[in-house]
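Input (structure):
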């Protein structure tokens, strides 16, 4: 079986809801990343054999096959096919897995994995809310499903509260972690740590001035514990707030995945080699705890232990998720989300998988480190894990 390599990984800077990226159609947003991957790598776009795109809210401007629409909005030729997939928050991480598997199987040599989500233009929950408002159907879960699990709905907010309770996490502990995310992200921005991964986008500010958007909008410079403590919990007796949960975000991201043959044929230099691809599923009620089991399986299959991993990107959907992961894996917190995470930088749903990969590969390169691990909790109790070896 041939190896799969990451030649480049790029992302847009995150846009807050109604913020800098509000005027960007999702297809154009994703197309900007596709164009950047082609431009930066220098590959002939005709050589691209497929584009696999993750997107969660596939309705409205993200409907009718947003992956193909991204290709049509880009400089790629019509001969490049595309497919749009949904594995909830892990959609573009799964897109990367599918791309790598195509390369590793020898089926294809050059594939782009990408993701897009405009949470301003297609608000979270729209695919469920609109049909229900129109009186169409009963929602995504049949009575048989709800009866099986003894619930009236599946809620990630409830899952986060359940994890916090299971691990006796206090509100202060969660807010402390959230503050750390903002401070790390702020430091990374000041150090220009994201320069090699961000695709500049032309935007218009509130005063009508045009400029390039290159800075993640969600990072709260000068955030304090007092400010976080002032936020209301989502549930009266809970510990989850808007401050210790991921931010709604607009964005797109992508990675160019190729075979060794393509490296030689096109004169490409890889950033990393794919070391392991794992996906598991478990409890759909607690839902967000699955990255722990998935990571253990990935490490076992890769023949590694957690101490072998130099940097980890664990998606900060809610603060209890990476905190529980750290405890169970007995992992080093200094290696976790070293440039901040979704609490500060935002979580553009379907785009977050390859977004985190862009940050991970460039962080490994910048620090001269070897192995990186990325994992993501996903709706339905699923989790993806990707282990990479930096070659830069």
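Output (sequence):
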């Amino acid at each position: 079986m041939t190896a799969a390599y990451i030649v480049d990984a790029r992302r847009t800077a995150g846009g807050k809801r109604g913020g800098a990226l509000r005027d960007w159609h999702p297809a154009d947003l994703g197309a900007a990343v596709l164009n950047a991957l082609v431009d930066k790598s220098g590959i002939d776009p005709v050589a691209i054999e497929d584009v696999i795109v993750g997107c969660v809210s596939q309705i409205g401007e993200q409907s009718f096959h947003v992956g193909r629409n991204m290709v049509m909005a880009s400089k790629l030729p019509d001969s490049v096919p595309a497919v749009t997939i949904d594995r909830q928050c892990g959609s573009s991480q799964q897109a990367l897995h599918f791309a790598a598997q195509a390369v590793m199987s020898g089926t294809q040599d050059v594939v782009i994995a990408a993701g897009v989500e405009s949470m301003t233009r297609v608000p979270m929950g729209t695919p469920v809310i609109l049909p229900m408002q129109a009186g169409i159907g009963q929602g995504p879960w049949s009575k048989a499903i709800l009866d099986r699990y003894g619930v009236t709905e599946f809620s990630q907010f409830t899952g986060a509260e359940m994890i916090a309770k299971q691990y006796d996490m206090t509100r202060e502990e969660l807010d402390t972690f959230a503050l750390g995310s903002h401070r790390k992200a702020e430091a990374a921005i000041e150090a220009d740590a994201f320069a090699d991964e961000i695709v500049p986008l032309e935007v218009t500010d509130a005063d009508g001035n045009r400029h390039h958007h290159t800075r993640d909008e969600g990072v709260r410079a000068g955030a304090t514990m007092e400010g976080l403590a002032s936020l209301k919990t989502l549930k009266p007796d809970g510990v989850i707030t808007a401050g210790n949960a991921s931010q709604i975000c607009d964005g797109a991201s992508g990675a160019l995945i190729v075979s060794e043959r393509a490296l030689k044929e096109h004169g490409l230099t890889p950033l990393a080699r794919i070391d392991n691809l794992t996906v598991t599923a478990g409890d759909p009620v607690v839902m967000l705890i699955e990255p722990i089991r998935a990571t253990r399986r990935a490490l076992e299959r890769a023949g590694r232990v957690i101490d072998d991993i130099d940097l980890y990107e664990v998606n900060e959907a809610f603060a209890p998720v990476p905190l529980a992961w750290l405890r169970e894996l007995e992992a080093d917190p200094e290696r976790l989300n070293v440039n901040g995470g979704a609490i500060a930088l935002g979580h553009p749903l379907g785009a977050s998988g390859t977004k985190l990969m862009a940050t991970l590969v460039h962080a490994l390169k910048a620090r001269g480190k070897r192995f990186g691990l990325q994992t993501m909790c996903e709706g339905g109790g699923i989790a993806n894990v990707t282990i990479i070896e930096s070659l830069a």
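Notes: The chain has a mean pLDDT of 97. DSSP finds 13 helices and twelve strands in the chain.
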